[in-house]
Amino acid sequence: MADRADSTVFLRADEYIAAHARSALAHIDPSTLARVVELLARSPKIFVYGAGRSGIIGRALAMRLVQAGLSAYVIGESVTPIVQKGDLVLIFSNRGESYSSIQTANIVRREGAELIVITGRTSSKLAHAATVLVWLKVPDDPDQPRLAPLGTVFEAASLRFGDALIAEWMRVRGETEESMRRRHAIMV
Q1: Which residues of 83-118 are buried (b: 16+ CB within 10 A; e: fewer)?
Q2: Where are the domains of the chain?
């Protein structure tokens, strides 16, 4: 085991993750982004779900959606209302095969809500359930396990997707950082 951190690996991993996350977003069709914004605008309630680290990314997006003036909730929280027809659910799942994500999608579809799936696999069960599919194309190469293990690139791309989506929402709706700051939770 090395005694000191190897900044060469650190910097290489940083570049690998950033480049592949950027590439994943570059593959999103502009019409898909427009459809996501349209659904955000017309949905009375917006719900976000993801398992594990994908769930953490989803929670970050839900926070920004509230700050952007939308009614957003995290599925699984005790104060989250029920999903109804006309609502919107976003599910983050790299592989699109987790049991909890598929079950959530089944409930969403049964209730008649719209479903946006953000995934790294277009052929997954979850992807097939989507109203709108956002494909974050992630690498499958020999460097991935060493520089970005497990779902790291998907998660980094998902966080960037959510933040870029908020910037697009701000543009479309005329939001500003100041208008969003007025909705920011008071921290003590």
Answers
A1: beeebbbbbbbbbbebebbbebbeebeeeebbbbbb
A2: 8-171
Residue 171's alpha-carbon distances to 5, 95, 128, 177, in angstroms, are 42, 31, 30, 11
8-171: CATH topology is Rossmann fold (3.40.50)
User: Which element (helix H / strand E) includes 50?
Assistant: strand 46-50
Per-residue pLDDT of the chain (188 residues; tens, 9 = 90+): 555 666 899 999 999 999 999 999 999 999 999 999 999 999 999 999 999 999 999 999 999 999 999 999 999 999 999 999 999 999 999 999 999 999 999 999 999 999 999 999 999 999 999 999 999 999 889 999 999 999 999 999 999 999 999 999 999 999 988 888 888 876 54
Catalytic residue among 77, 155, 168, 178: 155
| 155 catalytically annotated | yes
Contact 82, 47 (CB under 8 A): no
